[in-house]
Protein 1
Amino acid sequence: MRKTIEEKKTIWYLCDGEKEDCKKTHCYKNTKENPCRHTKDISHAVNFRKETRGGHEIYREAGCD
């Protein structure tokens, strides 16, 4: 049985605040009033780092070695 769009889970990451095309206007770097601190883009996740293994780019959680 395939999951529908409504059944798929969204993964949120702690954001580095560096995404240039972010459409959110309340980034934690710009305001203290109810700021956004999360992103769905793993390349801007604070606690993940990109590595190349066997010719493939992967993301690993930092500090879990």
Protein 2
Amino acid sequence: MREHHLNDFKKIKYICEIYKERRFYYRQEYLVGSDRWGEPKQISEETFLKRKRDGFPVEYRHIDKLPPYILSQLQGLDSLIDLALDTKDEEWFRELVDRRNMIF
């Protein structure tokens, strides 16, 4: 399969990050003026598969750590757990720890 003709003008790649439970899809563009890759922008699975069929370069990344959305949830819960400890609210503390254990 030949590379898509738009890559003659813009250097673009499509990324699939594979976690244990979920996949995330991104589009990343090379910034010629800065001579570096730009920030990945999230796209749908359908867009990723269409661009792959169209001949754009794709990259698969297998990742062993937790997905970003879970890490952000854990960080938020950890902050609340600290607050519950500071306020000495044992019931709220136990509820938050139980919720954290369900995620983790």
Protein 3
Amino acid sequence: MKKVLMIFMILIVFVSGGNYEKGVKLFNNEEYKKAASFFQKTATQGDFMSQFYLGYMYDIGKGVEQDYEKSAFYYQKAAEQGYGVAQNNLGHYYSNGQGVKQDYKKAILLFEKAAEQEFPPSQYALGQMYVSGRGVEQDFTKAVLLFEKAAEQGYAVAQYTLGNMYENGEGVRQDYTKAISFYEKAAEQGFTMAVKNLAFMYAAGRGVEQDYTKAKSLFKKANKQEDMPHKYKLRVWSAK
């Protein structure tokens, strides 16, 4: 299966009355050094969102010198308080050996905790671990279930991955109709690789009536789009 190696480090706007809000305002105004200074004060007071933001800033090198070890330290602080996004990001650190010693089993545990909170990126990441057999026994059935949970919440990369699996019969029974359905859902969100694969399906007449005009239109659309991977996404998400 074509591997989609993407890490979505999610920047969160968490709606509540936390002490971090002034720091968020500074961050959004691109006053990064002031934001980092503020978060450092509130993080020591145990504010998990300040710990998360500070970890994120060390991760991307905004307002502070990029430092993955410090980033991991603050993600860990927030993760210990049950914040799913911090658990997700720290899980990727352990999976990749970034800022911490590589440890697939720790990555699995962190992804599981965030996935239990119905966080799509962690459901997807955990599914990928089951596909590759890293830290767990390879299990395509579990992977598909996790991808489906993420896809149901509109997570485009999971929709694309399921489309790819059904197109090629990898881990599932080959089903072009299902492949088309998942590619279409991801394509509607502007996921370029899904648009391209959908174009190939129309060109070959797999799962749909062969339509070169439609295929050409989709290829043209894909070439105009920017790829979604590696872009930071601003999302509103509440931990449960």
Protein 4
Amino acid sequence: MTSRKEQLDAFLSRTLSETIAHIPLEKFAQCFPSMKKGKVIAVIHQQLIEFFEKSCKQEYANLIKERDLNKKLDMLDECIHDAEFRKLHGESEVDISNKQPQEILKAHLYSHKRELLDKLNQDLLDIDKENEGLSTQIAGEEKATEDCISRMQSLIQKLEKTVYGMNEKNLAKEAHDTLNDLLPYIQNPSSTWTNALNEQGNIER
């Protein structure tokens, strides 16, 4: 089934064809009796026909755009389709002869509002589902963070016990001195080793 837009386009083409058919070359040449029949009058006739067709189609396109007819024709097709669907499924016909225009418009807008409400409800369900997934993800990340903190606390406790044991055995100062000796090598190993070698050479001399 063709849409009303296609029907309107077809009607324009048919109307132009019928209009142009009433302006044949013979009748057109009669408007210029002083000119001889031939290629010149035929070219003028063809140019006039092409200009007429182009002008009509351009004006038609402007009207369609200015009045937003394509959208309105789609809405009309949708209204008719909905009415046929309701009739096919046994819904009783509504007599609109005694209805006010506001009532008819309100009834038409009801179906669109209902569709919009259904879409919003579906969007809300999708958002709830997404939020549920995010909540699950956040809970998992919180659990992983708590486990990490627990492991760090356990390591700190072990370290404190180790340091306490070293203090009891008087090993803390020895470890501290050793670390101080090694610290230059860790911070700048190349220069430290060079200085150490130079000092060793001086001692040997």
